[in-house]
Design goal:
There is one protein chain. The chain is an all-alpha fold. The chain has a single domain, classed as Four Helix Bundle (Hemerythrin (Met), subunit A) (Up-down Bundle). 79% of the residues lie in helices and 0% in strands. The chain contains six helices and no strands. It is found in: Cytoplasm, Cytosol; Nucleus.
Length: 151
């Protein structure tokens, strides 16, 4: 790999380490990254792309449910649990913590608490999304540098 690729790989590792120190990513990210190999060099890219698409659906559904005059708290609770599970599986630590706040507020059937928690979920999700997209972009660039050049 060219020097540029090594520099980019080092930048990626430093970025991931920084995100882990901030709690944006958990150490589970290392487990996901460890599953990536020569046979599936874009696994992390694929996992996060799917996660981000599913997360958007959860956020939309939670927002829709909490905008109803009569909130279906069991549905909010179920969605928040699913979203937390998804964020935990994808190493998004602070989003998972925010989802737990939403779970707690839905159990208490506290609409104001749910709205505040959802706002926190959305804020943390956007931070995670920005960073996951950056990781995916860097991973793609590294992958493309490794491809043989067409003549």
């Amino acid at each position: 790999m060219a020097a540029k690729g090594k520099d980019l790989s080092q930048q990626l590792e430093e970025h991931i380490s920084s995100l882990q120190e901030q709690g944006i990513l958990t150490d589970h990210f290392d487990d996901l990254k460890g599953l990536q190999d020569e046979n599936n060099p874009r696994l992390v890219d694929e996992i996060f792309t799917i996660f981000l698409r599913v997360a958007e659906d959860y956020r939309a559904e939670l927002t829709r449910n909490l905008s109803e005059p009569d909130v279906n708290y069991s549905e909010v609770h179920k969605l928040a649990i699913w979203f937390k599970g998804s964020t935990t599986s994808n190493a998004c630590g602070r989003v998972a913590l925010a989802c737990q706040e939403l779970i707690d507020a839905s159990e208490a059937q506290n609409k104001e608490g749910c709205l505040v928690a959802l706002d926190n979920v959305n804020r943390e999700y956007l931070v995670a999304k920005e960073n996951l997209n950056r990781i995916v972009g860097m991973e793609r660039e590294i992958y493309n540098m490794r491809l043989p050049k067409a003549k």
